[in-house]
Specification:
The radius of gyration is 14 Å and the shape is globular. The protein has a four-stranded antiparallel beta sheet, covered by helices on one side. It is built from two helices and four strands, in the order E-H-E-E-H-E. It starts with a strand and ends in a 17-residue tail after the last strand. Helices cover 26% and strands 45% of the residues. The protein has one domain (2-93): Ribosomal protein S6/Translation elongation factor EF1B (Alpha-Beta Plaits, 2-Layer Sandwich).
Length: 110
């Protein structure tokens, strides 16, 4: 089994319910196709430096999981036809950094 990090960008105009459905959908695909989900991070809405498909921002989701190449193929084939997604990226890594969440939502202090 290889280690992968996979990031999705969901359109900014999706509701919270739709975002949860997308996350659940792709977590299920990973788990049902011999993958082992390690961590799901919700990075939230972030601005793009340049518009992508007429969108100026998107909601980022980041998965860390162990799997084989067939799971990646299945995952990306379904993402290509998903109208709620703007982009996706899969990166094979040697090991996971489970300590640091780089886009952690900071609480506002008064």
């Amino acid at each position: 089994m290889n280690c992968y990090e996979h990031t999705l960008i969901i359109r900014q105009d999706t509701s919270d319910k739709q975002q949860k459905e997308v996350i659940s959908k792709y977590e299920d695909i990973i788990n049902k196709n011999s993958g082992k989900l390690i961590k799901t991070e919700k990075w939230g809405p972030l601005n793009f430096s340049t518009p992508i498909k007429k969108n100026k921002k998107g909601f980022y989701i980041h998965f860390k999981f162990e799997s084989d190449g067939q799971t990646i193929k299945k995952l990306e084939d379904l993402e290509r036809i998903d109208n709620l997604l703007i982009k996706f990226l899969t990166v094979k890594v040697k090991k996971f950094d489970l300590e640091k969440n780089y886009f952690e939502q900071k609480s506002k202090q008064n």
